[in-house]
Amino acid sequence: MAQKNAEKRNFYALMMEGTLFFTGLAFLDADTVVSVFIHTFSGSMQLSGLASTLRTASSFVAQLMIGPYIHKIKNLPAFISTIMFIFRPLFLIMVLILSLELSSDIIVWIFLFIYALLWASDGLVVVPWMDLLGRLVPGKRRGRLLGNQQLFGGIGSLIAGYIVKITLDNARLAETVKYSILFSLAGIVLLSSAVAMLFVKDSNKRSARPPVNILEYYRKLPGYLKINKAYSRMLTVQLIGSFAGAVIPFIVLFGKNTFDLSPSQVSTIIYLQIIGSLIGGLFWGNISQRMGNRYVILISRIISFIIPLLGLVSLGIYRIASPMLVLVPMCILAGINKGAWMGYTNYTIDVVDEENRPSYFVLTSLITFPTTFLPYLAGIMADTFGFVPLFIINIITSIAATGLALTLKSPVDDDPSLQSDALS
Predict the structure, then answer these.
(1) Each residue of 220-251: pLDDT tens digit?
(2) Model's pTM, two decimal places?
(3) Long-range contacts of 366-374 (CB under 8 A, 24+ apart)
(4) pLDDT score at 65
(5) Both 259 and 180 in a single domain?
(6) Is residue 333 part of a domain?
(7) Domain range spanning residue 13?
(8) What CATH number should be reported for the domain holding residue 131?
(9) Residue 415 lies in a domain
(10) Which conformational region is residue 414 in: left (phi greater than 0), alpha (psi within -120 to 50 degrees), or beta?
(11) How many domains does the chain have?
């Protein structure tokens, strides 16, 4: 009974932490709030691009730094909570910065520094958080937990997005006041997510580990690809699937630029994509729980095939029918597929041993990091050659990824230690 109560408490605490984190990030949305803020105060598109780069790079570097030392952390929930309490309220400092008479350039650079710190802190906790998820939440409930995070976080994001809209649209407020309001809300909600983490308790006491040789740690990482074939095959599917999903950020722009949609039609498909992400939270959580994470990966690859196929269909029928007939399901499916990442995370937890699980997550980050630049390359291709070649490439890579996903094996339920993955 005590163990069940502990599992229940940890489940809801982890779910609430993620929900509040996603909601807080909606006040710092990279495609709206951050880019508009930087452009308002600097007039620079390059600095907006730098913010996106800092988000990915700072998190990646932090994961590399913490990876070798995760086994030396005796109390993971306490470590994660401490990092969250230090870094997640940092945007409250921006309220003070905006109240001072500083030059716009200084304000923007301070913002970028704080923004990089926030995502570096996320990099410090993401691998330990996943390790806790694998140990504290039974296999059948992990998909439900991550799905609920996406669902309730999506609802919170919708509310936050509405607050962002009415705040930025208010002509009576000065720009500094508008962003002070948004950064205050971001800091408060993100701090609340750190409070939720306090309720997570780790039942396993971690023993001290010998000193870590960083060079030796990273030298051994590629060896995990050889000894765990299930993980290696899943990672191959993930990499090829990244090419197949590169078109997702451009669906709204595709509709807007190709079919000359009205502003109301554009806002409609934007919100449909958000609604799709809410549906995805429930959908993937149920698939994970009822069918297993192999099917989350497989179905998401099939959806990745359908989306560009619909794009080609829309180009063929728009002269005789409204393109919205095709753009609506495209955007809903794109929103649903945003949550499919949970399948790869849970499948990794399923097929690797607990001892080396953090190393596998670090290895995944290392190998998949270059794919973060794929949307940028896809944008160049769309600008240069149009969307048709991009859709064709996405269809081809989707077929390849789906074929490989069919070869994935379903792991035994509730047994995350299917293989002996220790490297001597």
Answers:
(1) 888 889 889 999 999 999 999 988 888 887 78
(2) 0.76
(3) 366/64, 366/221, 367/235, 367/239, 368/235, 368/238, 368/239, 368/242, 369/56, 369/60, 371/239, 371/242, 371/243, 372/56, 374/242, 374/243, 374/246
(4) 85
(5) no
(6) yes
(7) 2-202
(8) 1.20.1250.20
(9) no
(10) left
(11) 2
